[in-house]
Amino acid sequence: MSPAELLVVDDLSVTYALPRGRQLIAVANVSFTVHKGETLGLVGESGCGKSTISRAIMQLPPPTGGAVVFEGRNLAHLDTAALRRARTRLHMIFQDPISSLNPHRKVRDIVAEPLAIAGMGDAEDRKRRVRAALENVGLDPDQVMDRRPHEFSGGQCQRIAIARALVTEPQLVICDEPVSALDVSVRAQILNFLEDMKAHYHLTLLFISHDLAVVKNISDRVAVMYLGRLCELAPSARLYEAPLHPYTAALMAAIPVMDPDRCRSPSHLLAGELPSPMNPPSGCRFRTRCPRATPHCAAHEPEWRETEAGHFVACHFPLVAPQGATISPARQP
Amino acid sequence: MMDAGLPLLEVTDLATHFHTQRGLLRAVDGVSFSVRRGQTLGIVGESGSGKSALARTIIRILSKRHTTTTGRITFEGRDLLTVSEPDMRDIRGRDIAMVFQDPTSSLNPVKQVGVQIEEVLARHLGLRGRAAQTRAIELLTSVGMPLPQERLHQYPHQLSGGMRQRVAIAIALACEPKLLIADEPTTALDVTIQAQILDLLHRRQKAHHMAMILISHDLGVVAGYTDTVAVMYAGQIVEQASTRSLFRNCRMPYTAALMRSAPNLSDPPHTRLRAITGRPPDMVLPPPGCRFEPRCDDATDICRNRRPALSASDADGTHRYACWHPVASPGASA
Asked: Domain residue spans in chain A?
């Protein structure tokens, strides 16, 4: 593992046992790497397993298969004390800022809690860190420390949640739909702010969202998930410019754009619904909704392969990149 | 087109005020607009802008005890604010139907899907038994429900979110209403399902020459599926125009800011978003002048003191905005 690889998710699977001996495979054989300093976006529709992955990385609960290697150590092999220490360097922000904050506690205690759990610093030191974290998220510590979450708006609560995530100065922050519950105008504030925090704290982000436009904006690389599996992973600009997986293309075509003249052809619409993860289709899981599917797709599961440097896809019949696109360098810093 | 001159629905100076412990909350505060047969009006706004309160006022489902409504809602020549409750019950569901954001809470969890559709058919059309069941299957088929016959005997919890919304739409369309009010019909759904549902509403609307009010916080949704748009902010309409004119040539700084603040797919990664600072005003104590003034970059003294009226900007008077310092019109040179 190179020092640039902060988090390696290797062949991760999460299986839930159901009554009558059945199994729900929420995440199946997912592998990806998050490099130090980058933002990796993870997109997919509800039920595709993206939140399950984030929880499995946090070992809440540990995955049923595969490994999560953070800073060179397999988190599943750590004892409770060591895992606690690791968690100060690995934090999480949730979708609903209001329910992720304890309504009975004051902001000062909410933000200080990770420090208390990790046993970091003395009382004075903790207070100083809490103040600094609140200041960094744009809140006045003197005004907010003794108030409770219900006194704040959704956007402010998300800032408090971010302050709590940053107070231990973590390396990696997993953001699980952090702006989905916010209004458009507030969403932009928080997204800009996450970029600022990333620069300020030298963070690495795993950014999970169903919103492709948001993910493209914030991510260096993007992974697309469908029904518990990865279908494509590529540098952000590249993925949006020349998607290879039909699912990625369909997701993009479904994004409503602010242009009344853009033609909406029903042929772009993806038919049908997400199949049940309890009874996933054989072969390629997307084949039941895929316009390009053939009998081959039902019989064989597509392999995860790299079609060009950094662009991975799992599809038997990937979309052909537009002419010349394969040789032009990806617009990627 | 049937009586193209007369709007189907005309809302005039409508205000809905909620009685709260803190005082009167002006959820809808002097709103006027009209919708013609076969047309779709989009209403855009952030949460708390009053768009849902407006929809609920039109079909009169707000508690009378806790709200005061003034103004006029003329539907086919009748003022909905003065018709009797039994008459309103006939209009609701038959002439005006509504689809809500969350199909889980708008459907009855303990009744089978078929029963819920047949109830509407019996109440408004007098259809019962076999005839009602046949019609229910037709309706489910028309909203793209897979295996409609089997769905009749299922309960809402046995369906996915998208399918539940299809059932809610089937119920709303059961009596072929003249006006459908869809309040964030796809916000709770995934993007691929959202596209299916919006497309379905659009096709059904065209097929039945139905008028529609499509309420959404998403400018992209509104751009693709409406003829005209009204932008709401803090209980008022701040800009109103044909959809093309609004997106090509918006004049109100709030509309412009809303359009800029959303991430654009054509921008490269890490493009800085132009966020709107602050947040919407407290509707119990709204600012005396323009309500967007505290967040507006172009605000001056007049904005703080005097409320701008909704005035026309173009020759035929269809593009209207409420602003003292409108955004320059790029369309003037085009």
From this structure: 5-313
